[in-house]
Design goal:
Shape: globular
Low-confidence stretches: none
Strand order of the largest sheet: 2-1-3-4
Largest sheet: 4 strands, parallel
Number of domains: 2
Order of helices and strands: EHHEHHEHEHEHHEHHEHEH
CATH architecture of the largest domain: 3-Layer(aba) Sandwich
Strand content: 5-15%
Length: about 230
Amino acid sequence: MRIALFITCFNDALFPATGKATVTLLERLGCEVRFDPGQTCCGQMHWNTGYHREAAALAARFGEVFAGADAVVTPSASCAAMVRAAYPKLGVEPPEVYELTEFLVDVLDVADVGAYFPHRVTYHPTCHSMRTLGLAGRPERLLRAVRGLELVPLPAAEECCGFGGTFAIKNSDTSVAMVADKIRHVRETAADVLCAVDNSCLAHIGGAISRLRAGVRVLHLAEILAAT
């Protein structure tokens, strides 16, 4: 199957290992991955902060870049949610975009991707993955099939981490209180690694973990699934 990879600007700039892991994983499963270097931001930041005209221009560009793709796969639930939920409101017909875990489970129909990751792991379901995409138990299903991995439930998992893009800047005090709660629950799991399907949320939580010296590593789920 030929896959168009949407890596997202956030991952490209700050978390390139996630993109590499996504390619490694998809190719291991027999997919032909195509990356168009002409891709840019999906417009999520602009849309969320009220710059809808600018978001519409980026949405139109996105449609041009990925026109004709059988499937577009991205390791970002929030960007997939932007394309799927906001583009129609901007008058742009969205291409068929899948968040990585839903593509693996729903399209490729796999759970065991051949990964090995001998660590105690807890999973944070991000807001966009739960509330917009409805990923439900897909990420956990994939994690449970990883050899050597011990998956432990995260208390109050459905509570937001406090990132929310510009929310963390405009409402910093509230955001800090929310991420403090999240880290407290992460510590309760005694996990070695906290994973999620959005690096934006992991950056927020990971920064707070680093400042508090909580001793937990954050890692995108794609990097766990690519590990052997």
